[in-house]
Amino acid sequence: MTTIERPFQLSDQADAARFWFLDLIHNPRALPPLSADLFCLNSAFSPIGLDSRVVNGYVYNSPRTVGAPPAVPELPPGVALRNWETRYLPAVREVYEALRDQPYAGMTAPEILAFFRSQLEPRGIAFGDTVRAAMEIGPEAERLAQFLEAKLGVEGDLLSATLLHGSGSDTRSLGNEVQQLAREARRAPAVLASLQSRDFAAALASPEEPWASTLRQFLAAHEDEIALWSEIHEPAWNEDPLPLLRLVAATLDAGESERHDAAAAAMEQVRSRLAPADLPEFEAALAVSRDYVPVIEHRARWQLKLCGGVRKSVVALANRLVEEGALEDANDIFFVHYEELDAAVAGVLDARPLVASRRAEWREQLQLTPPLTLGLPVPYEMLGAVNPMMRRMFGAIAVTAPTATTIGGIGASGGVVRGRARVVTSLAEAEELQDGDILVCPSTSPPWSPYFAVVAAVVTDAGGMISHAAIEAREYGIPAVVGTREATRKSPEGAPITVDGSAGTVTLEA
To answer: Domain containing 148: what range?
Structure first.
């Protein structure tokens, strides 16, 4: 394959004097123009206080202020969860349902665009509410982590995370639902044969019960949950169920995933190692941290659903533009910039030649290797030094530099596994994963969760101890090394590797 190189430079001198970082969790890949524009518009409402810029299709972020972010007040136990359930979630749900339920079929293109524009600020505020919920619940988890690190050393971080995320996450339930689909497929001979022969269209069309009703219920429950926060150009499962059926087929081949209660094992270890005098403080810190997982995982799913609602509005506009001849295909709208939508709707912009050239440019951008940081030469780990969320969620800490035979990262789920490396850069590519593979990817999000029942271990470029990949690996009892920053580039596709989820190392074999 030809290596494509382009300079990654900030065009504004004032921007070049600031520190910018690539968010490998939410934006690991180049985005087409409209997806990038809308993500940057949304970032203006984030309570974290970040500015965003697009360089060669990749979104970079910069803190608006130098130094530590504003302190988050430590709330009494239970208040952060109550705030999410009674204040933030209802507001998020209201905005999503407005986007979902708008009668687009009876609206003209100018009407849809006007409605979409009217929803940008409410949507930005609602998305910001999901971030506020995470920020409010953060101190509860930090208290437990800091206590165990002080008492048990470096192992305390993994133990605290395992206690919080070692059994019963919201996204694990999604994996359970996919396994239920696999069980129903085994009971339906025609569906089973279709899935095994990879005739997914036949499986989708099958009326066999209870397979058909279980599939309908799944798609309804996960309506508009897209695969990645920034990639609204990719369809949700209810729009295109074939990727889901490929996932069911992979789950079918892997068999049932046994429940692994890593939290119980971590609890036993912590209690045996702490001094008796420290147990009351430990129990108190554990008690106030119990709400962390219900908030952090539930709000992630609603973030994806909210983004899917935005996609629904954009696609409705695109369908009108296709009818009017302004676009050839609905997906072409994602290669039109946000500020060009008025002209496209008014018929004064012929977007078709622009779409072709921009799509080709985007495909080239996907092959680029973007630097982790731009602008002011500040180490990425400095973000984690001043912001606990950047350290624990995003993995902004120092990691061991790679060698010819090893890749260093953050040990996020214990155990040692040797297997075949499968380098996967998107959820669509994950469809080819097989039982026992080691998943090597930029990052994961809730729709990836069922694949954790298929693979033997997970290695990611992005993420920290409480990132999605780390949480789910502990739920499924498989080793994980996260935050390596370059595992997808350094791991040889199809070659054997050894993952040590406690030491945070990946060993490459010749």
So the answer is: 79-165+290-324
Take residue 429 and report the two structure tokens written for it: 């590519």
Buried b (16+ CB within 10 A) or exposed e, 150-172: ebbeebbbbbbbbbbbbbebbbb
Stretches where the chain sits below pLDDT 50 are: 1-2
Output the pLDDT for position 341: 97
Picking from 368, 332, 390, 311, the residue whose alpha carbon sits closest to that of residue 29 is 368
Pairwise CA distance, residues 240 & 6, whole Å: 34
Phi first, then psi, for residue 407 (nearest 5°) are -125, 130
Specify if 496 maps to a domain: yes
Q: Cβ neighbours of residue 394 under 8 Å, at least 6 residues apart?
A: 23, 24, 25, 383, 384, 462, 463, 464, 467, 483
**Does the N-terminal peptide bond of residue 210 adopt cis geometry, omega within 30 degrees of 0?**
yes
Strand partners, 335: none
Secondary structure in 3-state letters for 460-507 = ECCCCCCCHHHHHHHHHCCCEEECCCCHHHHCCCCCEEEEECCCCEEE
Is 180 strand, coil or helix? helix
Quick check: 172 and 449 in contact, CB under 8 A?
yes
State how far the alpha carbon of 94 is from the alpha carbons of 99, 224, 309, in Å.
9, 15, 11
User: Cβ contacts of residue 40 below 8 Å, gap of 6+?
Assistant: 52, 53, 54, 59
Final residue of a structural domain among 274, 300, 324: 324
Q: Which helix (H) or strand (E) holds 80?
A: helix 79-83
Give the H/E segment covering residue 37. helix 33-43
The gap from C-alpha 305 to its chain's centroid, in whole angstroms, comes to 12
pLDDT score recorded for residue 89: 97
Please give the tally of structural domains in the chain. Answer: 4
CA 476 to CA 449: how far, in whole Å? 9
Domain contains 273: no
44 shares its domain with 91 = no
pTM greater than 0.70: yes
Is 261 part of any domain?
A: no
* Angstrom distances, CA of residue 96 to CA of 80, 110, 312, 330, 414: 22, 21, 10, 21, 38
Burial of 100 (0-12, 13-18, 19+ CB in 10 A): middle
Query: Strand 19-22 vs strand 58-63: parallel, antiparallel, or unpaired?
Result: antiparallel
Distance between start and end Cα atoms, the chain: 21
C-alpha span between 453 and 175 (Å, rounded): 8
- Let me know whether 295 and 161 are in one domain: yes
The residues near 475 (Cβ < 8 Å, ≥ 6 apart) are 165, 166, 167, 168, 169, 171, 172, 260, 262, 452
The pLDDT value recorded for residue 1 is 41
Three-class SS state of 372: coil
Determine the Cα–Cα distance for residues 402 and 207; give it in Å rounded to an integer.
Answer: 52
